[in-house]
């Protein structure tokens, strides 16, 4: 089976802990970089750990339907400085299901593990499994019950996609400094009087060299379905469509307590009650003026003012409700039209690219 090229060569790696080690003799007791409780010789435990850290079964299952929920572009990832401009707070998560998922004023980002920065780790463990498949999602839907080859291929493709996201998150030196401040990048090795061979300094220059190589060697076809065409995901939409595609009430619980859960309904309920109160008050005024202030009474002007003010109040309330409904419908329809056009455009470009490739082969 042909495999995709390594994400980066040895000369730009940022972790050389595994360099120069005999795989057959020395790896049995060697620890996974960044995870001292995982040993490379414990193959089953190692792969289960990689699955837990890098692979999201839920998002791979949703991958064919994510076009309904997000922009269809793997580059749809704002750099870290743009996250600050958008007033989003960076929340660290170790769950791959939440990587690049945002809600309200926060975005969840999974830190970059040190072992993914090791050339030897990719060459000896992940690379033999990262071969191309007939479709990206076919292997990405694999699970621990699948064959060993499919299982490990799915994890390797997810690892490539996860690593590529950092080429979009960190594009400027300011992004690099934010990543260091937010502890998204691996901690540098402890300083010693005699630096070891694995002490590769992580600077903006060395990291930029790494990401430039990753971006050029990791096309969409070489990553899992979740990362092939999608970047940031909105949690509210994931929770909405989880009922349809995952057969679950939500994708990720947002409110751990009943109080905060029911508090989200207070604003719309108050809006409905306030609207109904205004309508009922206007109708009551109209009824009262008809009964008490007829045109033959002493104050016909007051009767006219009360009557027409009540009518205008009803018209205003109805107008506000109609405008809000039209705006909601416009946003909903425009987003669906954009998603459908984008999906059709991607299909046409893909068909055209395949046709050109076939013509070149002939």
UniProtKB/TrEMBL annotation:
Q: Identify the keywords attached in UniProt to this record, alphabetized.
A: Membrane, Transmembrane, Transmembrane helix
Protein name, per record: Subtilisin-like serine protease protein
Q: Which InterPro entries match?
A: DUF6601
Claim: Transmembrane helix is one of the keywords in the record: yes
Organism annotation: Lasiodiplodia hormozganensis
Q: Which Pfam families match?
A: DUF6601
Q: Where are the transmembrane segments?
A: 261-288, 308-333
Residues of the signal sequence?
Answer: none
């Amino acid at each position: 089976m042909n495999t995709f090229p390594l994400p980066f060569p040895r000369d730009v790696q940022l972790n050389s802990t595994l360099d120069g080690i005999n795989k057959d003799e020395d790896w049995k007791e060697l620890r996974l970089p960044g995870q001292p409780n995982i040993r490379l010789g414990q193959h089953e435990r190692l792969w289960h750990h990689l699955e837990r850290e890098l692979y999201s079964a839920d998002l791979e299952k949703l991958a064919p339907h994510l076009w309904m929920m997000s922009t269809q572009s793997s580059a749809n990832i704002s750099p870290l400085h743009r996250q600050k401009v958008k007033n989003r707070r960076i929340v660290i998560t170790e769950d791959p299901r939440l990587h690049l998922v945002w809600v309200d004023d926060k975005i969840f980002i999974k830190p970059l593990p040190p072992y993914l920065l090791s050339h030897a780790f990719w060459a000896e463990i992940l690379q033999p499994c990262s071969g191309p498949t007939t479709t990206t999602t076919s292997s990405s839907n694999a699970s621990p019950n699948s064959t060993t080859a499919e299982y490990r291929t799915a994890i390797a493709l997810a690892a490539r996609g996860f690593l590529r996201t950092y080429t979009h998150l960190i594009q400027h030196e300011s992004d690099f400094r934010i990543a260091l401040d937010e502890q998204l990048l691996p901690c540098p090795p402890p300083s010693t009087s005699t630096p070891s061979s694995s002490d590769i300094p992580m600077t903006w220059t060395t990291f930029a060299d790494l990401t430039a190589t990753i971006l050029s060697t990791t096309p969409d076809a070489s990553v899992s379905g979740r990362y092939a065409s999608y970047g940031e995901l909105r949690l509210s939409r994931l929770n909405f469509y989880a009922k349809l595609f995952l057969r679950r009430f939500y994708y990720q619980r947002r409110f751990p307590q009943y109080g905060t859960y029911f508090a989200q309904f207070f604003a719309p309920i108050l809006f409905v009650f306030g609207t109904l109160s205004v309508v009922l008050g206007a109708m009551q005024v109209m009824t009262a003026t008809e009964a008490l202030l007829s045109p033959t009474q002493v104050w016909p002007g007051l009767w006219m003012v009360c009557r027409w003010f009540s009518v205008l109040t009803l018209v205003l309330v109805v107008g506000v409700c109609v405008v809000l409904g039209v705006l909601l419908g416009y946003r909903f329809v425009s987003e669906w039209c954009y998603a459908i056009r984008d999906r059709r455009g991607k299909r046409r470009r893909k068909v055209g690219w395949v046709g050109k490739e076939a013509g070149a082969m002939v």
